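Continuing from yesterday's entry. The apo prediction looked reasonable, so today I'm repeating it with nicotinamide-adenine-dinucleotide included to see how the binding region is handled. Same sequence as before; SMILES copied from the compound registry.
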Amino acid sequence: MQGHELLYLSRKDVSDVGLPMFEIIRALEIAFREKGEERTEMPPKPGIHPGGGDNFIHAMPAYIPALNSAGIKWVSGFTENFKRGLPYITGLLILNDTETGLPLAVMDCVWITGMRTGAATALSARYLARSESSSLGILGCGVQGRTNLEALNLLFPLKKVRAYDIDSGIARRFAEEVSERFRVDAVPVATPKDAVKGCDMVVTAGPILKKPHRTIEAGWLEEGAFASLVDFDSYWHPQALKESSKFCTDDSAQLLHYKEMGYFQDIPPIHADLGELVTGKRAGREKPEEKTMAANLGLAIDDMAVAPRIYKRALDLGIGTRLPL
Ligand SMILES: NC(=O)c1ccc[n+]([C@@H]2O[C@H](COP(=O)([O-])OP(=O)(O)OC[C@H]3O[C@@H](n4cnc5c(N)ncnc54)[C@H](O)[C@@H]3O)[C@@H](O)[C@H]2O)c1
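Holo prediction written out below.
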């Protein structure tokens, strides 16, 4: 189409834009308030599964009128990619003009996926964790381990971090890196139990498995603690899940859909979704001793809350490549 261009943003471009985590948390808060008030459009995500197993490519469209945002993320998760030296998560996002429908930008979605998932944990924690929470256990010290820590560190007075990874070298390097970057006292620990016991907040971010490995047992999560299940229920024994007095998610319908697909077979009843927590339609934490959990599966509104801000900043900073439509 003559005279019309879109902006292409590579993975490096998106990262160079440098949108701060606090802005991402704020954008998600607006998106979930709008969702809670039923003012967003987000059909269930269709997926295809090349190669079978746990591989997926999902289409994630959303429209958030209050943020003037419309578009779609087309995101893959391929479990064997690490053997080829490739990332597990890859994909693209298209941002559309809400007035004309024209594509405004095509951008790599890996950075957004990493950051918005950490932001969703922090937003859930704002309603479900004790505000004085100062210790954090991370199980799975990859991209999500980092972004979840970064986001929680903005909202809570974090002091101590215990890092567990199946690869002890990764946990050690992670602890060194985040101690310096976030000015916390982070130590690698030798067992999953060491990363759960004694922590105010826990994030599990290992692989997502249809058949959970159920490593975390009942009695490990402390009274008054909050857990974010970034890798679904893979890490948790059913008895440990049942100890949570408030089991929450980002979208109840999506969680129930995943349940039909074979995930989340042993979860407690859903207390609230994140839109209901943000709008106050359902209560967050009410007592200091409650054990609370958020299993946020990731929603298209997370991505579409962030994408327009990246686009705007990229235009302001002159980052990206203009392509003819
Ligand atoms: N819920 C969501 O919205 C959402 C969004 C993005 C990613 N995820 C999921 O989060 C998980 C982590 O993603 P990532 O991008 O950080 O991956 P990553 O590959 O960057 O990191 C994963 C880390 O987990 C470690 N690991 C593997 N098995 C483990 C185990 N049993 N215990 C502890 N550590 C283990 C690996 O060594 C690696 O360091 C994946 O399962 C991914 O699908 C969820």
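Comparison notes:
- Residues 77, 88-89, 113, 117, 139-144, 164-167, 170, 205-208, 230-231, 296-298 surround nicotinamide-adenine-dinucleotide (CB under 6 Å).
- The mean pLDDT is 96.
Will overlay with the apo model tomorrow.
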